[in-house]
Amino acid sequence: MDFSNNKAIYLQIAEYVCEHILLGKWKPQDKIPSVRELAVDMEVNPNTVMRTYELLQKQNIITNKRGIGFFLAQDAIANVNIYRKTTFIEDELPQLFRNMYLLEIDFEELKNRYQTFVTENFNA
């Protein structure tokens, strides 16, 4: 995985895990990769993945069954939506609004581009 410099790696890994959940690659109550497995896959230190898993546990997205491993919570999808929506609204939306204002992009143009994006990427 290619990491960007503008966000902590453990948060980028959390986004990766959340995407897998939202795309249905990992299902509620499924066992997910161990800390070491994901660290190897991501080419990061296991402590970084552990930090990600601790964050996701606090958000009630994953649970730890001691001695067995980490599993998705039953309501993982709903909790991912809450977590991602909150993060987007608090961290990313203000920057988007700032750029829209500076570049004089109105909501109608944004709406049209959004509809085109959805059509091209999700209605295939």
Automatic annotation (TrEMBL):
One of its GO terms (molecular function) is DNA binding. It comes from Pedobacter agri. Residues 7-75 form the HTH gntR-type domain. This is GntR family transcriptional regulator. Keywords: DNA-binding, Transcription, Transcription regulation. SMART domains: HTH_GNTR. It comes from the Bacteria. Pfam families: GntR. The keyword Transcription regulation applies. The keyword Cytoplasm does not apply.
